């Protein structure tokens, strides 16, 4: 099979030993089965995430994103830039759109890039891993490698914010996007209906305003429980981290007993495609996804 | 005929200096942004109110407000705004402008971590999660830092055990090769923007 080639922008969280490193593990086998080849952009840098604006402002933020895009154009010509992280994707895509819309910003950005001998031509497209799966692979082809149906597993598909807004997946509603539910169904599991699927996890405010963010997280997890979910699945690194990590803090402060596993869609798919718990990165969970591990070990 | 006009000099300042500030005047005061914000209950002034305050020339009250620092960047307001105002970007722009003028509240925690985060990334080109977390815990002094670290010890050890936080990051960790180039790009971009916005 000819593999589909993409310029891969992993982002800081997906490096070895970083908070989203289990996502990186889990996409290996998934991509292998789906004929996707990710070619890492040499010397990529941080996108500024959703908190970079405070000190970085507008042009420095656009410039650091344009550096990654310029490197992709230079080293991996003709390939779309793909990121698994919604913040990386949002920052790069916003950069592409703004620079195309405002010629003056494009000129200023290139003036800054020149300091490092780079130039952004504007030829590369910034895409999210989920877009690639849905648009370039498709649900039918995503289903083809399934050897272990995750039948009986009840999952709350937690889309969160930045994979969904302001851009979102083409054709999906901002209020009730369905693609994640379809992906859950593709691997044979049940997507429960619950009201918090696009609620914000608190984002970076989980660090700076923990009580306010944890209030968001608590609502998300409790709603998943109330609607019978055994597992939360998300496409977002920050959603995954915030919603999983802080459940213990919420329990400490409020006497609740939250212990809802939160995994990536790629971990589901890797297990359904016959991967081991380790190949799915399930040893990287703080709250073990025992039911999913059970499928992996079957 | 004479009509009462807005005291619009602050609006002009916002249009010239705040990211997407030229869109402020498009707000029709419907309040959908205020009702859509997950941190809504914690805003002293919702985006809708901030927009009207800008148009009313309330410079001091807007720029010293704690409110825009409540933005989690969830983009709910953007997608729901009937007039398609880029509200998230305007909030980010207002926060940044107030920060650069040093009018933003000194102890605002999101302002503090935003600076720590940016400094962390510019140093090596990539964010060092361990150093960023420690810098955040210790931002209010050593004693408080120890207390914060102890309180979050369980979470930290859990992440280390799960292979998602590497203690080795303290020695430098992940970084870009062309750190010098990245720093030069950032410095130049800031210089251009400062000149354009009269901040230089």
TrEMBL record, chain A:
<keyword id="KW-0560">Oxidoreductase</keyword>
<protein>
    <submittedName>
        <fullName>CoB--CoM heterodisulfide reductase iron-sulfur subunit B family protein</fullName>
    </submittedName>
</protein>
<dbReference type="GO" id="GO:0016491">
    <property type="term" value="F:oxidoreductase activity"/>
</dbReference>
<feature type="domain" description="Cysteine-rich">
    <location>
        <begin position="6"/>
        <end position="89"/>
    </location>
</feature>
<dbReference type="InterPro" id="IPR051278">
    <property type="entry name" value="HdrB/HdrD_reductase"/>
</dbReference>
<dbReference type="InterPro" id="IPR004017">
    <property type="entry name" value="Cys_rich_dom"/>
</dbReference>
<feature type="domain" description="Cysteine-rich">
    <location>
        <begin position="157"/>
        <end position="243"/>
    </location>
</feature>
<dbReference type="Pfam" id="PF02754">
    <property type="entry name" value="CCG"/>
</dbReference>
UniProtKB/TrEMBL annotation, chain B:
<keyword id="KW-0408">Iron</keyword>
<dbReference type="InterPro" id="IPR017896">
    <property type="entry name" value="4Fe4S_Fe-S-bd"/>
</dbReference>
<dbReference type="GO" id="GO:0046872">
    <property type="term" value="F:metal ion binding"/>
</dbReference>
<dbReference type="InterPro" id="IPR051460">
    <property type="entry name" value="HdrC_iron-sulfur_subunit"/>
</dbReference>
<dbReference type="InterPro" id="IPR009051">
    <property type="entry name" value="Helical_ferredxn"/>
</dbReference>
<feature type="domain" description="4Fe-4S ferredoxin-type">
    <location>
        <begin position="24"/>
        <end position="84"/>
    </location>
</feature>
<dbReference type="GO" id="GO:0051536">
    <property type="term" value="F:iron-sulfur cluster binding"/>
</dbReference>
<keyword id="KW-0479">Metal-binding</keyword>
<dbReference type="Pfam" id="PF13183">
    <property type="entry name" value="Fer4_8"/>
</dbReference>
<keyword id="KW-0411">Iron-sulfur</keyword>
<dbReference type="InterPro" id="IPR017900">
    <property type="entry name" value="4Fe4S_Fe_S_CS"/>
</dbReference>
<dbReference type="GO" id="GO:0005886">
    <property type="term" value="C:plasma membrane"/>
</dbReference>
<protein>
    <submittedName>
        <fullName>4Fe-4S dicluster domain-containing protein</fullName>
    </submittedName>
</protein>
